[in-house]
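hey so i finally got around to running the thing on that chain from the lab meeting. sorry it took forever, my laptop kept dying and i had to restart like 3 times. anyway pasting the input first so we r on the same page abt which one it is
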Amino acid sequence: MEKPYAPTPSTAATQALDELKSLPSFDATRVQFEEAITKITSAATQRLPGIVWTTADNADSGSCPAPYEQSGGKSAYLPNRIAENVPVSEQDWTALLGVATTAATAVGATDIKVMQDEPGKHDVWFSGPGGAFLKFSYKGNMVVSAYTGCRLT
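ok and heres what got predicted. didnt touch it at all, straight out
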């Protein structure tokens, strides 16, 4: 049976492993991202009284994608936090985006990509080493998502 993708060349795999060795462990990273999510959702709850957060059942963990697939590392998608039908003003969004930026920076997710930014429609991705990301978005529903990226156990 043929593999769908060629394995990462050994020099790139060695570089990827060296990168992972410089990062916090999988367990430590997971805790850091959970804390980042809590900071964002708590700030939103404080700013927007009556907001109700639910936790999605999308959590998943497993091995790492290329170029980390030979590292023996692990990765996890944390459960999304969702607040449905929340009225968020642009002033509220700006304030909460500031909290999300600070929380993302604290976990090393400092590369910011704004996917959508118009009144009532916002989608911001914060990414970091090993493929980690924190996503904060709003379009009637507010959503906070996170992925640990690849980390050694």
